[in-house]
C-alpha cells in the first residue's frame, strides 16, 4: 500500500510529521478519510480528533480545536490553531494528554455533547494502547 506524508502544525510548532497509511479528519461538514491518491482538496476543520494510521499500522490521535487541511495525492498538510497529541506512553502521560485535549476542545466549542463524544473517543483509543 502506498503511503502519504502527514504534517500537523500549530503556531507553536510541529505536532506530527511522518509517513502514514491513512488519516481521518474532522471536517466542518463532517469527517472524511484520506488515502494516497486522494484528489486535491482544501477543507476547513472543526474541533475534533485527527485519527491517523501510521505506516507500521499503529493508530494515533491528535485533538485539534480548528484549522485547515490541504490534501493532494501524496501529502496532507494540517494547520491547526491548537493541537494535543495523544500517543503511547505511561498511563500518567496519557491521562495528562487527555485532560489537555479536553481543555482545548472546551475552549473551542460550547457543544458539550460533541466534546463528550470526542473525549470518549480519545479515551477509548488511548486505553487500547495501554
Please provide the ordered H/E string of secondary-structure elements: EEEEEEEEEHH
Query: Number of DSSP strands?
Result: 9
Percent of residues in beta strands?
A: over 45%
Radius of gyration: 14 Å
Please state the average pLDDT score.
87
Compute the number of helices. 2
**What's the main sheet like?**
9 strands, mixed
Helix content: 25-40%
Helix-strand category = alpha+beta
Q: Would you identify the regions where 5 or more consecutive residues have pLDDT less than 50?
A: none
Explain what you see.
The chain has 130 residues and is of the alpha+beta class. It has helices spanning 91-108, 112-127; strands at 4-10, 13-27, 30-35, 41-45, 48-54, 59-64, 67-71, 75-80, 83-86. Strands 1, 2, 3, 4, 5, 6, 7, 8 and 9 form a nine-stranded mixed β-sheet that branches. A hairpin with a 2-residue loop joins strand 2 and strand 3. The longest helix has 18 residues, at 91-108. The radius of gyration is 14 Å and the shape is globular. The two termini are 28 Å apart.
Amino acid at each position: 500500500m502506498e503511503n502519504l506524508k502527514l504534517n500537523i502544525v500549530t503556531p507553536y510548532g510541529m505536532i506530527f510529521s511522518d509517513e502514514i497509511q491513512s488519516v481521518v479528519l474532522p471536517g466542518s461538514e463532517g469527517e472524511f478519510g484520506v488515502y494516497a491518491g486522494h484528489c486535491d482538496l482544501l477543507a476547513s476543520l472543526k474541533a475534533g480528533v485527527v485519527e491517523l494510521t501510521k505506516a507500521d499500522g499503529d493508530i494515533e490521535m491528535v485533538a485539534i480545536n480548528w484549522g485547515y487541511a490541504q490534501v493532494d495525492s501524496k501529502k496532507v498538510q494540517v494547520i491547526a490553531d491548537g493541537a494535543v497529541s495523544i500517543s503511547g506512553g505511561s498511563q500518567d502521560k496519557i491521562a495528562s494528554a487527555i485532560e489537555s485535549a479536553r481543555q482545548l476542545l472546551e475552549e473551542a466549542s460550547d457543544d458539550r455533547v460533541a466534546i463528550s463524544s470526542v473525549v470518549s473517543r480519545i479515551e477509548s483509543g488511548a486505553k487500547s494502547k495501554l
